[in-house]
Amino acid sequence: MAKKEIDARGLSCPEPVILTMNSIKKDIDEVIVKVDTNIAKENVSRFLEGKNFKVLVEEENSDFIIKGKK
């Protein structure tokens, strides 16, 4: 099982989604994306759900940790 962690804090959309999209092309079963805005959280979560990942979002201070797993 391949796992990828992405730190997309400080990036504006669509950059967090593009980074996530590029990472799951590489046969990734689990991805963790850190973002710092609600819009990025919603967009990355929606993208992963559309790619059949189960998504769990945790809030840590002012950041969001999005965990996607196939």
What does this structure look like?
There is one protein chain. The protein is an alpha+beta fold and 70 residues long. Helices cover 33% and strands 36% of the residues. Strands 1-2-4-3 form a 4-stranded mixed beta sheet, with helices on one face. Strand 3 (54-60) and strand 4 form a beta hairpin. Helix 1 runs parallel beside helix 2 (38-50). It is globular and about 30 Å long.
Write a concise synopsis of the structure shown.
The protein is of the alpha+beta class and 70 residues long. 33% of the residues lie in helices and 36% in strands. It contains two helices and four strands.
The coarse overall form would be: globular
Q: Average pLDDT across residues? A: 95
Distance between the termini: 10 Å
User: What fraction of the residues are assigned to beta strands by DSSP?
Assistant: 35-45%
Low-confidence stretches: none
Q: Helix proportion of residues, in percent?
A: 25-40%
> Which class best fits the helix and strand makeup?
alpha+beta
Strand order of the largest sheet: 1-2-4-3
Question: Major beta sheet, specifics?
Answer: 4 strands, mixed
Helix tally equals: 2
Radius of gyration: 11 Å
Q: Can you count the beta strands?
A: 4
List the helices and strands in order: EHEHEE
Secondary-structure blueprint of this entry?
Blueprint: E1 3-7, H1 15-24, E2 30-35, H2 38-50, E3 54-60, E4 63-69
Parallel strand pairs: 1-2
Antiparallel strand pairs: 2-4, 3-4
Helix pairs in contact: 1-2
